Inverse folding.
């Protein structure tokens, strides 16, 4: 992850990181999450949809299928490498447009969309109130939004060295502006002029540590990010990373975290 820009906390993923996200987003856990988003939005053919922070474009493709050829999908991301992956994934959909943009400065006219999605986006944004104001601006009256963010303090990751695990996770918090955003997101949505129509916890639970799983993919990001933060050395990060595989090898691996889906309506 590159450093945030000076005006806001915006992370732009490198090409390697975007490819890693591509693998994580294909994991069974994230596939189930996308279905939860679609179920919550109850999309209709012909609607105009927006994906804020589209990443490699998995949600964009699902939205395009749901709204059909009579509808349209626009998507933005801050990372050019992610945009390229998303465009390749959605090349067969002529009603999809994908470009560069940020949650606090959406490049669209007022009241342009019937529905919007923001998955794992607002926890990175320093000014969430501004981002939600932009979300409201681009939605039509009665427009729906599906928002998913993680409470990173809910992580349960088994370790024989709890002190080191705690410091690693606190260091990992530094990649975010709001590690516990779901706890206050309902209030922020209300203040921004939305009614929260549904809330749902989406647990990610894993007892194995294999490539292609969500927890394995996230562990690689954590391992590379934390050295030099919270006093963690590279040797300590390596030891943390190696322990996960050792636990898995003897059938003792355990990982769980909670993501939270909010379905909101513009009043």
């Amino acid at each position: 992850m590159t450093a945030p820009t000076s005006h806001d906390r915006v992370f732009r993923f490198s090409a390697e990181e975007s490819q890693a996200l591509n693998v994580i987003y294909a994991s069974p856990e994230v596939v189930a999450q996308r279905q939860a988003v679609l179920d919550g939005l109850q999309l209709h053919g012909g609607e105009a949809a927006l994906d804020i922070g589209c990443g490699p474009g998995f949600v964009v493709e699902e939205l395009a299928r749901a709204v059909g050829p009579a509808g349209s999908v626009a998507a933005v991301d801050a990372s050019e490498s992610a945009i390229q992956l998303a465009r390749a994934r959605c090349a067969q959909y002529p009603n999809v447009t994908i470009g560069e943009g940020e949650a606090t400065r959406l490049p669209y006219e007022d009241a342009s969309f019937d529905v919007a999605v923001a998955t794992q986006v607002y926890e990175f944004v320093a000014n969430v109130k501004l981002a939600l104001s932009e979300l409201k601006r681009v939605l039509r009256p009665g427009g729906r939004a599906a928002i998913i963010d993680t409470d990173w303090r809910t992580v349960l990751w088994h370790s024989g060295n709890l002190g080191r695990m705690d410091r690693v996770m606190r260091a990992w918090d530094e990649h975010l502006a709001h590690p516990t955003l779901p706890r206050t997101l309902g209030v922020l949505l209300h203040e921004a002029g939305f009614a929260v129509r549904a809330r749902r916890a989406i647990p990610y639970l894993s007892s194995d540590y294999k490539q292609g799983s969500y927890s394995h993919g996230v562990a690689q990001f954590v391992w590379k990010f934390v050295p030099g933060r919270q006093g963690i050395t590279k040797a300590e990060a390596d030891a943390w990373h190696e322990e996960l595989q050792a636990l898995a090898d003897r059938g003792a691996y355990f990982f769980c975290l909670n993501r939270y889906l909010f379905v909101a309506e513009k009043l």
Residues 1-10 have pLDDT under 50 and may be disordered. The CA atoms of residues 109 and 267 lie 18 Å apart. The beta strands are 48-52, 72-77, 96-100, 113-119, 139-157, 194-206, 255-266.
